[in-house]
Hints:
This protein has about 450 residues and is α+β, with helices and mostly antiparallel strands. The protein has helices at about 5-60, 65-80, 150-200, 215-260, 270-300, 310-330, 350-365, 420-430, and strands at about 80-85, 90-95, 115-120, 120-130, 140-145, 310, 335-340, 345, 370-380, 385-390, 435-440, 445-455. The chain has a 5-stranded antiparallel beta sheet. It starts with a helix and ends with a strand.
Amino acid sequence: MFQSVGSRLFLSYLAVVVVGLLAASITISSLLVRYENEVLQLRLAELSAPLLTAMTAALRANQQPSAVVEALTEQAKSANARLLIITSARRVLVDSDNTLTNQTLDRPTNGNFGSFTDKNDQWVFQQQVFRQTATGLTPAVIVVARPRAAFADALRILFPSLVVAGVVAAGFALVVAGLLSRTITRPLRELVGIARRFAKGEYRARVPVAGPSEVAELGGAFNDMAGEIERARGSEQSFLADISHELRTPLTSIQGFAQAIAEGEATGAAITPAAKIIQRESRRLMRMVEGLLQVARLQSGTHELASERIEPGTLLATARAALEPQANEAGVHFAFAESPDLPAVRGDPDRLAQLFLNLLDNAVKHSPKGGTVAVNAMRDDGHAVVRVRDQGSGLPQGAEKRLFRRFYRGENAQRDGAGLGLAIAQAIAEAHGGSITAKNVDAGGAEFTVRLPSA
C-alpha cells in the first residue's frame, strides 16, 4: 500500500506533524502548569497578606491560637481560604476546617510556598514563622492555604480551542505534505516516463534536470547514460555501415571472378590472374575478420593476456627488424633513441609487439621517400613512454581521435589496408592499462605516444 516514494514521503510528513503536535501539547501543558503556579502564588500572596498580619497581631496580643483562627475563619472562608497554626515540627495545632489537627504538614518546596493534600483536594499555602517573645508560647508557624484550581479544569476550558487549533494545523500540514510529496516525486515520475520512452527506442529523450539536488543529480546521471547509449548506438550503426562497405568490395571481386571462372568466361591464361585476385581478396577478408575479432576481444576483456616482464627496447628492436625491408623499399629510415632508465613493463609480449609493429608500420606508410621515422623511448612519471614520429603530411584537422576508430583510413593510406591497425594498437594499449594518443608536430608529420605502466 505504501510502496511508492510519494506515499512514504506523505507518511513521513504526517509522522512529523503528529510528533510536532504532541510535543506542542506537552509544552503547552507544562507552560500552563507553570503559569497556574505563578498566578496562584501571586494571588495567594495578595490574599495572605492581611490574614497573616491579623494573625500575627492577635498572637502578639497573647490570644490563644484557636481563638485567633476562630476569629478570622469567616474572613478566610469569604476569600475561599483556610487558616492553620502549626508547630516548628510541622504538627498542626489549629485548623480552621478541623480536618488536619494534630497531623504533620510537609515543608514548603518554594521558599514560603508549599502544598498539601486534604481529602483528595490539593491546597497551596503561604507560611510565616511567628516567634513570641513572651514566655509560655513556643515558636509557631501561621499558614494561609487556598485550594489549587484543578489542572483538568483549565484544560477543559482550553481543550476546544486546542482541538480546533490542532485540526487546523493538521489539515494545513496534510495539504503541504501532499504538495511537497508531489513536488519531490514529479521529477521521478518524469524520469520513469522518459525511461520507458527511451526503452522503446526514443534515444534522444532526455529528463528535465529539476527538483531537489539529489533528484536533479539522478536526472543528470540518466541524461549522461542516455547520451552514452545514443553515442554507442550511433557508433554501432556507423560501424555496421562501415563494415558493410568494407566487406562489399572484396566480396564483389571474389564473386565476380569466381562467377567468371564458373561460367567459363575466364579460360586458359585468364584463370590464373582471376584466382590470384580471389586469393588476395580472401586474405584481405581474413585479415579484416581477424582484426575485428581481436579488437572485440581486447575491448571486452575476454582475451586472455599473458603477464610477463618485458623490456620495451627489445620489442621495438624486433618491430624494427621486421619492418626494415619495407622501410628500405619505401626509402624511409629509422632513428631510434632509448633512455637508459627506460622501465620494464608487464604484459603480453606478442600483443605489445603487435602494438609497436602497427605503429611503426603506420609511420613508414605515411612517410615520404627519404623521410625518417623517429622513435624515442623514455621514462616519464613511472611509465614507459614510446613516441613514434613520422615526416608525413600530418593528421587531418579533428582526426586525432577518429583515426583510432575501426576502418578509418587517411587520405594517403593504402587502399588494400583494412583500416584496423591503429584500432588494434589502441585496444592493446588500453588492455595493458596504458593509453595511446596522436597529434601533429610543428616540424611537420604526426607523433603517436604510447604510455604503459612500468612493472
